[in-house]
């Protein structure tokens, strides 16, 4: 038997009482955005100072790719644990503990000596533990505060952190390391900012009732029951696969494209050793593209989907718009990314322009993917669903892709050390994630056949009613 916690229609939460209900909720979203932003900045400050790290620790490409892989292995291993806890215990406390782990591990990693690469690797893994607690829990808090189009908008704001944080990580890490003359300060500035928002989390964040925004009946279940339920929701399974394939490509691109563009610059200017200030400049350009394209992609994806669902602009009303927009993003990104890889050694500016549109297309799905999850999964299983999606996305996505691409690149290049050899080896290796991106199109299109049924089933489960015949959904 399940025990049920009822959130009746007549009951209004304290967060909704008074005239400050919505402003306070939006303040919470902004604070959650800021912490998410810092998490993504931290992930990519390392990529922004990757050249300096390789010199400091004497790393080859395979070892450099291992930095991201180890981080994500720890991240994905602890994500299911955090998801289980997030569906059952106080989420504010879970976030606080995670932030303490994250801030401490990043700070300690900047104190490691050049002969202790394994310790640095371990600390980057521990950083993943701290970030896993936040990534699995924070979206479910937003899901419990909002519903409908307001939830879509709040999630869009929250996921601005993906492109903006990634871009600022490249820019900040590269610029600060260049200014300070050491990679350590390029990595160290994110936990310093994190301490400020740690205080805001303690003071401002309030734990909402699970299912509050949808007035849902919340059932307490076992882990096995949760897993059986999640695997039975076809839309969730298919969009998780689609998301994973996109993350595989994005993870490889985020880690290796700045390096590849640096080698392309070396080819164009007949240099085997690109000046450090030019390396920093390329990182800044990549960061700006990531930030701006990501923002445009997330806003465009959410706006297109809402307009399509409501029959605005040139669209006819379609409740299946979310997965269609996700599929369209991957469809556009695939040829653009392929052409970018081909032309970078001929024209950097043309490659940057193509990259902007490709990244924009790949970012159409970031907020929509989570919105789909909220639509088809009941509130008391959303943290677990987010955790498993995170696990899959990282295990078969950006945990493996940087290492796989680095390994293929090393294999292709052999003992060659020229800019041309490094460029063409990375170019060849990057064709793999480009092919994987095609698989995401199929998964998102397949999910359009199931999303209406799964969403209807979730609504019936939340309100304790039996499922109506599928013919009565409309």
From TrEMBL:
Alphabetized InterPro entries for the sequence: MFS, MFS_dom, MFS_spinster-like, MFS_trans_sf
Transmembrane segments: 26-46, 66-86, 93-113, 119-142, 154-179, 185-205, 236-257, 279-304, 324-344, 350-368, 431-453
Principal localisation: membrane
Topology in the lipid bilayer: Multi-pass membrane protein
Keywords (A to Z) from UniProt: Membrane, Transmembrane, Transmembrane helix, Transport
PROSITE patterns tied to this protein: MFS (PS50850)
Domain Major facilitator superfamily (MFS) profile: start-end pairs: 28-459
Coiled coil: none
Protein name in UniProt: MFS domain-containing protein
Top-level taxon: Eukaryota
Family in the record: Belongs to the major facilitator superfamily. Spinster (TC 2.A.1.49) family.
Localization terms from the record: Membrane
Cellular component per GO, a single term: membrane
Gene Ontology molecular-function annotations: transmembrane transporter activity
């Amino acid at each position: 038997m399940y025990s049920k916690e009822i959130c009746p229609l007549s009951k209004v939460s304290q967060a909704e009482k008074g005239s400050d209900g919505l402003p306070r909720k939006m303040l919470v979203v902004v604070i959650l955005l800021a912490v998410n932003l810092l998490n993504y900045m931290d992930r990519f400050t390392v990529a922004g100072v990757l050249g300096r790290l390789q010199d400091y620790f004497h790393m080859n490409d395979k070892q450099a790719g291992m930095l991201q892989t180890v981080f994500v292995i720890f991240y994905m291993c602890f994500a299911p644990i955090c998801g289980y806890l997030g569906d059952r215990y106080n989420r504010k406390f879970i976030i606080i503990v995670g932030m303490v782990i994250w801030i401490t591990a990043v700070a300690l990693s900047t104190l490691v000596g050049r002969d202790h690469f394994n310790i640095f690797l371990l600390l980057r893994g521990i950083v993943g533990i701290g970030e896993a607690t936040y990534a699995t829990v924070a979206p479910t808090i937003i899901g419990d505060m909002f519903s409908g189009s307001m939830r879509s908008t709040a999630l869009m704001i929250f996921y601005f952190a993906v492109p903006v944080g990634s871009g600022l990580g490249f820019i900040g890490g590269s610029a600060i390391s260049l200014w300070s003359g050491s990679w350590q300060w390029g990595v160290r500035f994110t936990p310093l900012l994190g301490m400020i928002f740690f205080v805001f989390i303690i003071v401002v964040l309030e734990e909402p009732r699970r299912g509050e925004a949808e007035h849902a009946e919340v059932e307490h279940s076992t882990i096995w029951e949760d897993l059986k339920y999640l695997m039975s929701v076809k839309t969730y399974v298919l969009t998780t696969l689609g998301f994973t394939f996109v993350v595989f490509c994005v993870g490889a691109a985020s880690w290796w494209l700045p390096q590849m563009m640096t080698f392309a610059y070396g080819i164009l200017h007949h240099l085997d050793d690109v000046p450090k200030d030019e390396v920093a400049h390329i990182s800044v350009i990549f960061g700006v593209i990531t930030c701006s394209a990501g923002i445009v992609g997330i806003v465009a994806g959410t706006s297109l989907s809402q307009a399509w669902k409501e029959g605005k602009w040139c669209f006819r009303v379609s409740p299946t718009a979310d997965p269609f927009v996700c599929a369209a993003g991957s469809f556009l990104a695939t040829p653009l990314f392929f052409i970018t890889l081909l032309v970078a050694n001929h024209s950097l500016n043309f490659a940057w322009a193509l990259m902007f549109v490709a990244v924009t297309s790949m970012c159409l799905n970031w907020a929509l993917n989570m919105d789909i999850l909220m639509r088809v999964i009941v509130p008391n299983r959303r943290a677990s669903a987010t955790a498993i999606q995170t696990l899959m996305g990282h295990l078969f996505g950006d945990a493996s892709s940087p290492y796989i691409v680095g390994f293929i690149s090393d294999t292709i290049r052999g003992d060659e050390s020229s800019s041309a050899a490094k460029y063409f080896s990375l170019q060849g290796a990057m064709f793999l994630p480009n092919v994987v991106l095609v698989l995401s199109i199929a998964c998102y299109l397949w999910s359009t056949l199931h999303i209406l049924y799964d969403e209807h089933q979730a609504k019936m489960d939340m309100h304790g009613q039996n499922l109506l015949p599928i013919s009565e959904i409309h």
